[in-house]
Amino acid sequence: MCNILFARELAKRLGTRSTICSSAIHPGDIVTEISKNMGKFLAFGHRYVIGPMLIKLEQGAWTQAYAAVHPDMEGVTGRLLWRVDETIPFEEKPFQRLEPDCQSRLWEICLDICSATEAEKAILP
Predict the structure, then answer these.
(1) How far does Cα 81 stand from its chain's mean position?
(2) N or C: which end of the chain has fewer CB within 10 A?
(3) Percentage helix, strand, coil, to 5, in the chain?
């Protein structure tokens, strides 16, 4: 959620005139061996019930690569990328329910964690 809030705030601060785009990217639901030590029941459920809905490990970075280099993504900002061809505007559900100042509070917290100087904070007011 913080990734989404931060990307949304950065997109807002950069504005539409910037050539820099900011979107959040869902890491993907990937087949792994995470269920290997969960016990037989959970391992079975993970492999045979959930497994068919997951993407292969080799496909895991497709969305990130697509966002970084695909011509269709030029100028796209303020989105959540779910799978390669699915982008969700931050204005859509479930993001409508977020507190209006939540993303700006996160921005300020991140600046404090990074010990940003006043000059650095002024770059993207």
Answers:
(1) 7
(2) C
(3) 55, 10, 35
In three-state secondary structure terms, 75 is coil
Give, in degrees to the nearest 5, the angle at Cα 12 between 104 and 77: 130
| Of residues 18 and 32, more confidently modeled | 18
**Taking Cα atoms as reference points, which of 18, 17, 20, 22 lies closest to residue 103?**
22
Model pLDDT for residues 106-120, shown as the tens digit of each residue = 999 999 999 999 999
Cβ neighbours, 10 Å, residue 37 = 8
Q: For residue 99, what are the CA distances in angstroms to 5, 33, 53, 71, 124? A: 10, 37, 32, 33, 21
- pLDDT at residue number 91: 63
Q: Are 6 and 105 in contact (CB under 8 A)?
A: no
Q: What is the pLDDT of residue 92?
A: 61
Chain CA centroid to CA 21, Å = 13
- Per-residue model confidence as pLDDT tens digits over 39-98: 888 878 877 887 777 878 778 788 888 888 999 888 888 888 877 666 666 666 566 566
